[in-house]
Amino acid sequence: MASLQLKTIAGPKGQARPALAALIAAMGDGVSGIEDAAGQYLHGGPVESASRIAVSLDGGTIGWVSGTEAGAGAMAGMLTFLAAKEAERRALGAEVLHLYREVHLIEQLSEQLSALLELSSVGSSALAQARRLIAGGHGAIFVTEGDGLRAIAEFGDRIDADAPLLGAVLRRGVAEIVNDVETDTRGLVDGLRAVICVPLRAKQVVGVMVLANSTSDEAYSAADLKLLNTIALQTASAIENSILCAEMVGAVRDREQLASIQKELDTARTIQLSLIPRVFPPFPDRKDFELHAQMTAARSVGGDFFDFFLIDSEHLGVVIGDVSGKGIPAALYMAVARTQIKTTALTGVTPEECLREVNRGLMREKASSLYSTCFYGILNTRTLEFRYCNAGHNPPLVVRAQGLEHLNSEGGLPLGLFDGLPYTGAMVQLVPGDSVFLFTDGVSEANNLALDDFTDERLEAVVQSLAHLPCEELVRRVTEDVLAFVDGAPQSDDITMVSLRVLG
Question: Do the Cβ atoms of 50 and 33 come closer than 8 Å?
C-alpha cells in the first residue's frame, strides 16, 4: 500500500515502537539499523559489512533492516507482518467508512424521497443519489405506462426505453449486469460498454433504473448491483406513493367536478320544473273543467313535458310531449319545443296548424338528431268539442261512463324529423263527466326487475277502475300502481300524466 510508510510502524511515534525497541535490545548486535524507503534511519545507523534486508508490502519495498543476516531477516519479517496488519486495518476502516457513507447517503435519499410527491422530482433525486454512489456516465429511471416504459429522469446519452434488456428486467423482476454490451444481443445504446439495470419493485414492479458507462474499464460489480437494488427499493416505494397521491388528487378533482355537475343538474332541474305548471288547481275560478298533471324525470332532468293554458275564455289548450333521449340535451330540446308550441298555440290556430308550424321551426333551427312526439288538444269549454292533433305520441284515453276509448293516432310524424310534413287534426265530442287521460310511454313501458313492462292494457284497466276519482287522485293512484309494479327497479324513462275532466 503506497500510502503506508515504515515510520508509521517503526518511527518515534509508531504504536509498535516500544515492542520493537525491546526486541532490538534482546537481539543485541543482530539489528544495527532500520531505514525507510527514502533512506532515512528510524533506528541505529549504517554499519559496514552488515546485511541489508528489505521490508515488503503488496509487492513493493517500504524500508530495510541492517544487521546480521539472521537478526535483520527476523526483524524484516516482523516489520513486514506488522505492515500487512496495519494495511489490513486501514482497508477495513476504509470499507467501514465507505459503508457508513453509503448508509448515510441512503438515509438522506429516504428522507428526500419521503418529502417528494411529484414523479419527476422523485426520479431526479433518486438518480442523482445513485450517481453519487455508483459510477455512471449515463442513466435513467423509467416507469411503466400502458404497455411500455416512460422516462421520468435521465442524464447522459438517452437510453432506449424499448431496449430488450429493460423489458427483460421489467418482466422478470430480476436485476442484471452486462459488462460487455457489444456481445449482448439485447442491445441498448451505441457507445455504451457496461450497463447495470434493476427493477423498481414496490407491491409490484413499477419500472426500472439503469446506469451505464461508455468504457469497458468501468465494469459493474455485485456490490454495485446490491447497492443499486437498495436505492431502487426506496425509489419504487416513493414512485408508488407519488402515483397514489396523483390518483387521490385526481379523485378529489373528479369528486369536485361531479359535485359541480350535480349542482348544474339541480339548477337545470329547477329551471325545467319552472317551465311546466306546478300549481294545482291551475284555474281555481273555472268550474267547467278539472285538471291535474305530474311528471317524474328518470334523471335529474328529462325530456318529457306538458302544459295547459287558456287561449281565450272558451278554449283550453292541453299539451303533452316526449323528447327522444335523456338528460340535459333532451331537457334543452324540450324547453325549445314547449316554448314554440305554446307561443304558436296562443295565436289561436288549430292543433294541426300549430304542430305544422312548430315542426317547420324546429327543422329550420335543427342542431341535433333529437325529435319529439307531441299531442296537442283544444277543449271548447262551451260545446265540449275536443279538437286535437297527434304527432307520433301515445294515443290518449277517453274515459266515459260506458267505458274507455282511444283517441285515434291521426296527425303526423314526431316533430323535428322531417320538414314539410302534413299534419291532420281530428275531433271528439265529450259530455259532462268524461275525462281525457294523456300519458307518455314512460308509464306503459315502466319495467320491473324482471324487465316486464307495465303495458297499455294494465294502464287501461287501472284508469278504468279509478275513473270515478277526481283528476288529482286519479293521477296519484296510477303513479302508485306503476311504482308498486316496478318494485324498486331503476326508472328507465320519464313518467308523465295529464288528466282532464269536463264538468259542463
Answer: yes
Q: CATH 3.60.40.10 in the chain, residues?
A: 276-502
Task: For CA atoms 442, 443, 449, 450, give the dihedral sign.
Answer: negative
Decide if 14 contacts 78 (C-beta within 8 A). no
Q: In the beta sheet, which residues pair with residue 172?
A: none
For 152, 192, 494, the CA distances from 264, given in Å and listed in that order, are 39, 58, 19
Q: How far apart are CA 209 and CA 200, in angstroms?
A: 7
* CATH class in words for 276-502: alpha beta
What are 64-78's pLDDT values in tens digits? 888 888 888 888 888
Question: Top-level CATH class of 116-246?
Answer: alpha beta
Each residue's pLDDT tens digit, 362-392: 999 887 789 999 999 999 999 999 999 999 9
Q: Which candidate, 108, 144, 353, 130, places its Cα nearest to that of 232?
A: 130
* Span(s) in the chain for CATH 3.30.450.40: 116-246
Residue 500 corresponds to which amino acid?
Answer: L
Cα radius of gyration (the chain):
48
Q: Report which of 441, 407, 411 is spatially closest to residue 424, judged by C-alpha positions.
A: 411
| Alpha carbon distance 237, 260 (integer Å) | 34
Cα–Cα dist 237/234, whole Å:
5
